[in-house]
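ARCHIVE ENTRY
Sequence with per-residue tokens
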Amino acid sequence: MSLHIHQGSPTQIHDALMSGEVDLAITTEAPYLFDDLVQIPCYWWNRAVIVSPEHPLAKVKELTIEELGKYPLVTYTFGFTGVSDLDYAFNSAGILPNIVFTATDADVIKTYVRLGLGVGIMASMAHTALDTDLVLIDASHLFRPSMTNIAFKHSTFLRNYMYDFMEYFSPHLTRSVVEKAERLRDNNSVKKLFEGIELETR
């Protein structure tokens, strides 16, 4: 058994899953694309802003959406149609964000910020102890939290290592819980299955 990880937009991930190119998909956006698949909730995650220590935002005590909207932004690629959580926050404030670069990877976003190309907006957990040259600014009060799910086809035969991987990825996804989700016919029923489980926020 070997593990291969592929990266892509929500549409690309969905297509890879449907074609059988991958067995499991880890999704963070556009859940409606995966309505024809089993979607199991893993954890919540919040966004943060990253800047250089010299940037004016590094000295702001509590960041506002209006202040953030003054600067060119670098964030994740919009690989889907519809309104993202980032769009929702700016639209609610009547602000058109100036997004100058997008990337599918947080490391690329950090590189753009280091080059002075813009202010980064990314998952807060993507900022590590090695990023000492970047200031992390909490933005959980500006943007709605996002959900990470694991998705797979109803017809997928889940092998032991797949169950093990899901539990390793999110400890509440024990084999018995995943098997219950497999037997349900739609994702509304799957959501009800997890209503009593408090998901981790990362």
Remarks:
- The chain is about 30% helix and 20% strand.
